[in-house]
Amino acid sequence: MNILVTGASGFLGTALCAFLERQGAVLTRLNSRNCDLTRADSLPAAAPDRYDLIFHLAAWTQAGDFCLRHPGEQWIINQKINTHVLDFWARQQPQAKLVFMGTSCAYAPGSDLRETEYMAGEPIDSLYTYAMTKRMLFQGARALHRQFGLNYLCAVPSTLYGPGYHTDGRQMHFIFDLIRKIIRGKEFGEPVVLWGDGHQKREIVLVDDFVRILWSLTNTFDNDIFNIGAGEEFSIRTFADQISAIVGYDASQIQYDTSRYVGATSKCLNVDKAKAAVPYELTALSEGLESTIRWFYSAGAHHS
To answer: CA 175, CA 69: separation in Å to the nearest integer?
Structure first.
């Protein structure tokens, strides 16, 4: 099977490519260094083969308050990226199935976060632009399917975690930021200050679990959308307590800064649809955190 992957050097892309190689796939890996997706001519030059599958993971975003600071740029850059991928798919790779990532922030606050609500209501204001570019990507795939019969699958992930996260100085998703801060508190005696009051809740899923479930859905369903997550959420304080116990840090020393941006106070995907569709086994949170913390130490990620 010949497979094209955009965003191949990212956290999810690296894990997905490793998995696909184990399945015997022949991969074309694209990243910002070998293909500028904001240019219309880059994809045809970088991906001249005929593909069975296209995994579109690339997006211009970061964790933390990045979306608050770059809404205009996010709209222009991500719309260019997604439009060029959709155009390349329709014009040059119509035989390929396009598998692309949605975002949980596309769901309106107060919704049940079910797939039927992905395009309904207004996303949270702080993440509005990014959420809408992802909705437009979904609509683009639906439109091309309707007119030309192209096949797609949209996967909406909760926050992914696990070994191998980027250490290039970008803002980290909350779970990695918690681990880094708590390890540095333990190893270097730095104060551990977490954003918000610690009662905001989050859901995480191990990246390897996500990839395995995504592959099962890809092989089974066409022209559909699936949430992939843990289906349960925990408070930041709960995550911090578990990480502190693994690291050996006194969690009572953690400080909470209620003046800092925390985004949504709760965000847990409804995963009933995916659970009913494919085998849905998830790694226990304690086991996943332990493996991620071991990687932090071995990679020296807590020094960044």
So the answer is: 21
**CATH: 3.40.50.720, 3.90.1150.10, 1.10.10.10, 3.40.50.300. Which one for 2-159+206-228?**
3.40.50.720
Give strand ranges (E) for the chain. 2-6, 26-30, 53-56, 97-101, 152-157, 159-161, 193-195, 201-202, 204-206, 224-228, 234-235, 255-257
E strands, 32-93, are 53-56
pTM for the model stands at 0.93
Q: What is the CATH number of domain 162-202+232-267+283-296?
A: 3.90.25.10
Q: What is the pLDDT of residues 56-111, one digit of tens each?
A: 999 987 766 676 777 788 899 999 999 999 999 999 999 999 999 999 999 998 89
Contact present, 15 and 36 (Cβ < 8 Å): no
Q: List, by residue range, all CATH 3.90.25.10 domains of the chain.
A: 162-202+232-267+283-296
